[in-house]
């Protein structure tokens, strides 16, 4: 098994760049390692950060922060979740609120050192299909490896592959809860690779409190699709990273947990821990 030297970077605290939040609230990352045996000198170093809620080109708006961020981001693989939708000049959110960022913000992320992006999240669809397409186009234009959204469901669940001198790393990304209606990718519609979570016979979108202690279970169709993608990735990569963007917290809504500072926000929910073990196995 290849040795991994992870640098678990804290969420970046430059206000215009990222929002500080507890890991359980936003993501769980697991690694599935291939069977290859590699020498110590070829150990791959991975830096994992939380979400980048970036709304501007920080090289312009906060230039002093860039070298600080660069100093934190060392390694062969440098990961973040882009928690924004790319908007071209003049494009705005039609209703509600959300997170949009200009294409140049991706240049800033690349300058900081990021080379692996999860695009799945509840804000990925803030500009609807246009935002999905914008983000995919601009990430591809900059040759930034990504996963989690796509022009259809097959593309959204497909692994992204980052080739490094020390090995190939695959990324699979999905999201649960608070997905805007219509934001899930389908066979013929761009969107997010959504992992729906069900409480008994009721789907839990984390928007309403549910009575009792529901048996939260990942949707069978969604979970099988993601597990198959993991199996496929293991055939083509030395290391597989699986990213889960989560807003489903059992019998309480995200809003309740967040505003009331409930303890549930500090650790992964039981359903997420069980699901993570399934992904690893």
Description of the molecule:
This protein is an alpha/beta fold and 281 residues long. The protein has one domain (4-280). The protein is 27% helix and 25% strand. The protein has 9 helices and 16 strands. The chain has helices spanning 23-26, 58-61, 65-72, 104-112, 128-141, 153-157, 220-234, 254-259, 270-280, and strands at residues 4-7, 27-33, 44-52, 77-82, 85-86, 100-101, 116-118, 145-147, 149-150, 160-164, 167-176, 191-192, 197-199, 202-203, 216-218, 239-246. Strand 7 (116-118), helix 5 and strand 8 (145-147) form a beta-alpha-beta unit. It is globular. It starts with a strand and ends with a helix.
Quick take:
With 281 residues, the protein is α/β, with parallel strands linked by helices.
Overall average residue pLDDT: 83
Work out the radius of gyration: 18 Å
- Biggest sheet, open or closed, and with what strands and sense? 5 strands, parallel
Task: Give the termini distance in whole angstroms.
Answer: 15 Å
Helix content: 25-40%
Order of helices and strands: EHEEHHEEEHEHEEHEEEEEEHEHH
Q: Strand tally, please?
A: 16
List the helices and strands and how they pair.
Blueprint: E1 4-7, H1 23-26, E2 27-33, E3 44-52, H2 58-61, H3 65-72, E4 77-82, E5 85-86, E6 100-101, H4 104-112, E7 116-118, H5 128-141, E8 145-147, E9 149-150, H6 153-157, E10 160-164, E11 167-176, E12 191-192, E13 197-199, E14 202-203, E15 216-218, H7 220-234, E16 239-246, H8 254-259, H9 270-280
Parallel strand pairs: 1-3, 3-4, 4-7, 5-6, 7-8, 11-16
Antiparallel strand pairs: 2-16, 9-12, 10-11, 13-14, 13-15
């Amino acid at each position: 098994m290849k040795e991994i030297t992870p640098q678990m970077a804290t969420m970046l605290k430059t206000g215009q760049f990222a929002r500080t939040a507890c890991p359980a609230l936003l993501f769980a990352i697991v690694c599935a390692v291939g069977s290859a045996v590699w020498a110590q000198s070829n150990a791959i170093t991975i830096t994992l950060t939380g979400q980048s809620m970036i709304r501007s080109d920080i090289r312009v708006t906060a230039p002093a922060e860039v070298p600080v961020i660069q100093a934190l981001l060392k390694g062969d693989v440098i990961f973040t979740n882009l928690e924004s939708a790319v908007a071209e000049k003049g494009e705005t959110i039609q209703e509600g609120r959300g997170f949009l960022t200009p294409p140049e913000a991706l240049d800033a992320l690349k300058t900081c050192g990021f080379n692996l992006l999860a695009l799945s999240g509840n804000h990925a669809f803030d500009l609807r299909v246009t935002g999905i397409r914008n983000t995919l186009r601009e990430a591809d234009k900059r040759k930034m490896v990504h996963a989690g959204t796509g022009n259809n469901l097959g593309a959204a669940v497909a692994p992204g592959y980052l080739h490094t001198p020390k090995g190939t790393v695959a990324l699979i990304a999905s999201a649960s809860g608070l997905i805007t209606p219509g934001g899930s990718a389908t066979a013929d519609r761009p969107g997010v690779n959504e992992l729906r979570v069900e409480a008994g016979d009721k789907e839990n979108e984390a928007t309403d409190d549910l009575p009792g202690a529901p048996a939260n279970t990942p949707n069978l169709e969604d979970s099988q699709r993601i597990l198959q993608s993991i199996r496929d990735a293991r055939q083509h990569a030395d290391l597989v990273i699986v990213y889960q963007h989560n807003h489903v917290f059992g019998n309480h809504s995200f809003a309740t947990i967040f505003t009331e500072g409930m303890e549930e926000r500090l650790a992964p929910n039981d359903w997420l821990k069980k699901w993570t073990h399934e992904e690893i196995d």
